[in-house]
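=== RUN LOG ===
request id: a7f3
mode: sequence -> structure
chains: 1
length: 282
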Amino acid sequence: MTSIFLVDDEPEIMELYSAILEPEGFTVIAEASNGLEALEKYDALSQKPDLIILDERMPFKSGLEAARELLARDREARILFVSADPMVKIYARTLGVLGFIEKPFEKQKFVGMVKSVFEPLEMEKPTPTSGVKANGGKSFLFENEEEAFSLFQARISAGAAGLCITRQFSENVRSRYGLAGVPCVWLSQIERMDNTIDPSNLGRLVLTISSFMSENQGSVVLLEGLEYLMIQNTFERTMKHIHQINDIVMAAKTTLFVVVNLGSFEESQRAILSSEIKPFKA
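=== RESULT ===
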């Protein structure tokens, strides 16, 4: 008997999963309607499920939060992620989940993905985040703005897709550094303008970078204005999102350039920032 634990906040979706999986020889042994309940029920199960099918958007605790905690408690836990948001895929992979299915999905594709989890020759369980980091992309910290933009422009000229996110007005940056045609996002509270992100909306910033990197293999992203982000938020909150971005860079095997004036930070903050992102050395 292959046991399944279903986690989704929509009862009709869990009924659909059961209706699809049980005729294929799977047995649903537990259900939960949110991430918090999933953790509680998982701990209470005397026999752990062979597979957890986990949704992302749920009340109390999201699927990503639940997956992170489940894998911290049990590295052998098998998790298959299901979400209508394709950008969640990169985050989920960095945690070490086995696979990702985007809603809506076809029945046969869903069944095939579930079965593939139990066929190691076709789909081996990935290593945790540390393995992803070892073989992933790289992030670099620049104190010299001119140097960062020069290398950024050189990478684009060599064929890499580029995205610039800056505190400076986008058109001025394009003109100054020869970035005609390169997508630029302006960090500004005037978010009603095109191609702007409110500096307090760190979630949107992360999703913008994630989407670009997932769609452009070998791409390079330049982020200028970290000090501004930290003024609008707290250092701790900003670093939490920088950590997420860094994980995305490594998982997507892309490159991130971060331009910053380290003199603007306290010594302890500089140490944290430099440990998260490697200072660039020519």
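=== NOTES ===
Residues 130 and 262 are 27 Å apart (CA to CA).
The chain has two domains: 2-129, 136-279.
=== END ===
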